[in-house]
UniProtKB/TrEMBL annotation:
PROSITE patterns: FE2OG_OXY. This is Fe2OG dioxygenase domain-containing protein. It comes from the Eukaryota. Belongs to the iron/ascorbate-dependent oxidoreductase family. It holds the Pfam family 2OG-FeII_Oxy. The lineage of its organism: Eukaryota, Viridiplantae, Streptophyta, Embryophyta, Tracheophyta. One of its GO terms (molecular function) is metal ion binding. Residues 201-302 form the Fe2OG dioxygenase domain. It comes from Brassica carinata. Keywords: Iron, Metal-binding, Oxidoreductase.
Length: 356
């Protein structure tokens, strides 16, 4: 249990609104971590794949495209995903209204590193760590036994209802996607969900991210490089402002959001379950001097109290289990203490890392 933050929490949005002309040193990243704006010079295909799910779900050939996207990118955008476009706009707009409330109002929901639930500005409790240029609100959505909407923002008044409505639709999408991923791995449709611990036992959390405009965007990051710890993530990005970058070899590819699309990415638990066939790819968020950016990430996770290890059917003599089974709650605790750290966390579960 981690009870408190090592330093007082500062709202980055308040700093930004106060009009600071330089980034305080707490947010200045070491040179090797600063953003690179190189996606267009990479010479590689610089767009993450876009999958039309109405097509994928109708046409067995579509599974091959899903597999390729998960093997090569760990990221794709989906269109015709079944989530109502108007609802996507409304929930994002309502979160923007929440972040526009006075700091005093938002502080009523101030979070602690014990559960992370509520309004916050940092991940990890390492003293003197360099921080990210963002604020967020984090809440538990599934299993419904741990959902407590009285901890969700009461303002704007429609937000709680919108979170429920959006959560239900994205949950259904995730259930379908887990089936699709299972089939694309050559498994029975329900195999991966069983390995997740069953549809009634999975977990889901929501993080609303606010990236304030920044006077010196080249010195900092909105969100440091990390891979997502859970199963799969569904990101509803800002309509107008790019910011998410995905690692591709030595380059960072900036995601250009397709209108009304959702971004899907593979998390560490699916990398583990697929024995490394599917990649949980590093990503980060850059900020800019002109505009604030809002995004919503819904993390869909395996049941937290069962060991998660490579699926037996995917093991071969040439490719034995790469990872040691670990419970998701243990894994998450490690990340909550250390903060974002590239791919170091999943690599620490490599069977070889434990042998040495
Ligand atoms: C995250 C994340 C991307 C974004 O919340 O884990 O990667 O665009 N967010 O905000
Ligand atoms: Ni992420």
């Amino acid at each position: 249990m981690v009870a408190s933050w090592p330093e007082p929490i500062v709202s980055v949005q308040a700093l930004s609104q106060a009009g600071v002309s330089t980034v305080p040193s707490r947010y200045v990243k070491p040179a090797h971590q600063r953003p690179l704006y190189n996606s267009d010079q990479s010479g590689l295909n610089t767009e993450i794949p876009v999958l039309d799910m109405s097509d994928v779900w109708r046409n067995p050939e579509g599974l091959k495209r899903v597999r390729k996207a998960c093997e090569e990118w760990g990221f794709f955008q989906v269109v015709n995903h079944g989530v109502d476009h108007g609802l996507m706009k409304r929930v994002r707009g309502a979160w923007r209204e929440f972040f526009d409330l006075p700091v005093k109002e938002k502080r009523k929901y101030a979070n602690s590193p014990d559960t992370y639930e509520g309004y916050g500005s940092r991940i990890g409790v390492v003293k003197d760590a360099k921080l990210d240029w963002s604020d967020y609100f984090f809440l538990n959505y599934l299993p419904s036994s741990i959902r407590n909407s009285s901890k969700w923002p009461a303002q704007p008044p429609k937000l709680r209802e919108l979170i429920e409505e959006y959560g239900e639709e994205v949950k259904k999408l995730c259930e379908r996607l887990v089936e699709t991923l299972s089939e694309s791995l050559g498994l029975e449709p329900n195999h991966l969900m069983k390995a997740f611990g069953g549809v009634d036992k999975v977990g889901a959390t929501l993080r609303a991210n606010f990236y304030p405009k920044c006077p010196q965007p080249h010195l900092t990051l909105g969100l440091s490089s990390h891979s997502d710890p859970g199963g799969i993530t569904i990101v509803l990005s800002d309509e107008n402002i790019a910011g998410l970058q995905v690692r591709r070899g030595d380059c960072w590819v900036t995601v250009k959001s397709v209108p009304n699309a959702l971004i899907v990415n593979i998390g560490d638990q699916v990398q583990i379950l697929s024995n490394g066939i599917y990649k949980s790819v590093e990503h980060q968020v850059i900020v800019n001097s002109g505009m604030d950016r809002v995004s919503l990430a819904l993390f869909y996770n395996p049941r937290s109290d069962i060991p998660i290890g490579p699926v037996g059917e995917l093991l071969t003599e040439n490719r034995p289990a790469l990872y040691k089974p670990t419970r998701f709650d243990e894994y998450r605790l490690m990340i909550r203490q250390r903060g974002p750290s590239g791919k170091n966390q999943v690599d620490s579960l490599l069977a070889s890392a434990h042998d040495s």
